[in-house]
Specification:
Layout lengths: L3 H8 L4 H11 L5 H6 L1 H4 L6 E2 L13 H8 L12 E3 L6 H7 L4 E3 L4 E2 L8 H4 L8 H28 L1 H18 L6 H29 L5 H25 L3 H9 L8 H4 L4 H6 L3 H14 L6 H5 L14 H4 L1 H25 L9 H47 L6 H29 L5 H22 L9 H16 L24 E2 L6 H9 L6 H4 L1 E2 L5
Antiparallel strand pairs: 1-4, 2-3, 5-6
Helix pairs in contact: 1-15, 2-10, 2-11, 8-9, 8-10, 8-21, 9-10, 9-12, 10-11, 10-21, 11-19, 11-20, 18-19, 18-20, 18-21, 18-22, 19-20, 19-22, 20-21
């Protein structure tokens, strides 16, 4: 059987067909950041106080200021308390004015907000005082959705295909994303957000597979990271969109409905040819490969296609093989820790955007602005320094930035924000690196299961990140200490991973060891080589023929 990399070389490693495919899988990623970060702008702190309209029954002519003076206690700064009020009494107004009220209680009749403000999640569902923690709980439940998507949709795409899962995930994201704008209760809102998170996870991991499996060795990381650049562009759009649309329900529709404009994907999005070959669907694989070659203006040598035989397909992978096989166990454990660490610091900084002391819109604009250069720079970093060093160093830097923030005084908001932005930049680049690295480390037969498992680890960290912020009530430094120390430790373990730069993807799990990379002589015929080399752009034989050493 021919190596699939030979077919990709014949089709074109990154021709027009692959570029169009990367564009198709990248467009939905423009919307993913909104679902992830948009809630930050829907729950901005607003002035509020307890509803004390009870006193209107005995003093209907009181001005608002007089009402508040009589019914609300003041804090140490002389401001009205936001979460407590004087207990209602059955006295007449003169007695209340003469003797005043002393006993206090929590707000029992709701809260009052500035009437000029557009409806927000905070004001509509009273996410203040004792209910304030529901905001972080909601973000954690969204991360649970991402976790469920990794658990369910990762293995499912290994079973029914990348294309099917991608399309199903897009449909679910659009339907439930728009439905969120019409929910009557906050608990329904959280449930729908969980479903949207599940769908987003499916989009991200199947986009990774399609980009990885359709592109040649030398262009693989570029294809994945270009799609990540669209994700970064989505981040930069969020502040402007949120600033222009203050009504949270309209903002939710604006951030979710555009996915329906991509309905035509059902006709144009291709399946992974590599996955079709693994599943023994040879004729379908030949058709999509020939279509790709035609669009790329290339010709696949007939002898290459003839070598695709169903009976020579590798044995299907079992998820337990990730832990049973020695060469995969180390890779799996370290990558699980890597995804956990980078997700923890990434979401920890992203969700802390409103606590750095500067305007939240400007801070998020800076956070979103660094996403694009961070992801774009990975295209060069991965090629210059390799996957292992890039992953390890970026993790170390992101953790160090968080640890340094702990020592910055609270009144130095600008310094804190600059360090946080640098930390977000390195964490973003590390996140992109982990996607590329994981896709190259796991074999095709179990790639989505492996990446899905890593994604589960990341989503677990994402679920924990907003809950970590609740630890600020015990000491402000605790969350940042956790966000910083975890990636520093894991970054050191990354140096134990093998390097995968310029190596062919592994299809089966027949390897006994993965400690190094050994060149493998291609089984292409001289005629196939000459025909391939004669095509536009040629093929780098030294790069193309490099693969992991397989056991007999």
């Amino acid at each position: 059987m021919t190596e699939f990399g030979d077919l990709i070389s014949a089709v074109g490693e990154f021709g027009l067909y692959q570029k169009l495919l990367v564009l198709l899988i990248s467009l939905p990623l423009l919307l993913n950041p909104f679902q992830m970060i948009g809630q930050v702008f829907m729950v901005l702190d607003e002035p509020h106080h307890c509803n004390t309209s009870w006193i209107r029954a005995v003093g209907p002519n009181l001005t608002e200021e007089e009402q508040l003076n009589l019914t609300l206690p003041r804090d140490a700064d002389g401001e009205y308390e936001q979460c407590s009020m004087y207990s209602p009494v059955d006295w007449d107004l003169d007695s209340i004015v003469a003797y005043g009220l002393n006993a206090t209680e929590k707000c029992s009749s709701g809260w009052v907000y500035p009437s000029a403000q557009a409806p927000s999640l905070l004001t509509e569902f009273d996410l203040v005082c004792d209910r304030k923690d529901l905001n972080d709980v909601s973000q954690a439940i969204y991360m649970v959705g991402l976790l469920l998507g990794a658990i369910i949709l990762g293995p499912l795409s290994d079973t029914i295909g990348r294309r099917a899962v991608f399309l199903i995930s897009m449909l679910i994201q659009g339907l439930f994303g728009v439905a969120i704008a019409f929910v009557p209760h906050f608990y329904v809102y959280m449930a729908f957000r969980c479903v949207v998170g599940t769908a987003e996870s499916g989009i991200m991991i199947t986009a990774l597979a399609l980009a990885t499996e359709w592109v040649g060795v030398s262009q693989r990381s570029k294809a994945v990271l270009i799609s990540h650049c669209f994700f970064a562009i989505g981040h930069t759009i969020i502040p402007g969109l949120s600033y222009g649309i203050r009504n949270w329900r309209l903002l939710q529709i604006a951030g979710s409905a555009p996915v329906f404009a991509l309905f035509f994907y059902i006709w144009v999005l291709p399946e992974s040819a590599r996955w079709l070959v693994i599943k023994g669907r040879i004729e379908e694989a030949k058709k999509v490969l020939q279509k790709a070659a035609s669009i790329n203006k290339r010709t696949i040598p007939p002898e290459l296609l003839e070598q695709l035989k169903p009976e020579t397909q590798p044995k299907p992978g079992n998820p337990l093989d990730l832990f049973r096989k020695k060469h995969l166990l180390k890779v799996t454990l370290i990558m699980l820790c890597t995804w956990f660490a980078v997700s923890l610091v990434y979401y920890g900084l992203s969700l802390s955007v409103s606590s750095f002391g500067l305007d939240v819109y400007l801070t998020q604009l800076a956070f979103g602005g660094v996403e694009l250069p961070a992801r774009f720079s990975c295209i060069f970093l991965l090629q210059w320094f390799g996957r292992k060093k890039t992953q390890a160093v970026l993790l170390l830097l992101s953790g160090l930035m968080c640890l340094i923030i702990i020592g910055i005084p609270e009144d130095q908001a600008v310094v804190t924000t600059v360090l946080a932005v640098i930390g977000k930049l390195t964490a973003t680049a590390s996140f992109s690196t982990s996607y590329v690295y994981s896709a190259e480390l796991f074999p095709t037969v179990i790639r989505q299961t492996g990446v899905g498992l890593c994604s589960m680890s990341a989503r677990l960290a994402g679920t924990m990140a907003p809950l970590m912020l609740l630890l600020e009530r015990f000491h402000p430094a605790i969350p940042m200490a956790i966000f910083g120390s975890t990636p520093v430790v894991v970054g050191l373990f990354c140096f134990l991973l093998p390097e995968t730069r310029d190596t062919e993807l592994v299809d089966d799990m027949g390897m006994d060891d993965i400690k190094g990379v050994t060149p493998q002589i291609s089984n292409r015929s001289p005629e196939a080589l000459s025909k391939t080399d004669a095509t536009e752009g040629g093929v780098d034989l030294e790069t193309d023929n490099c693969a992991f050493l397989k056991s007999k």
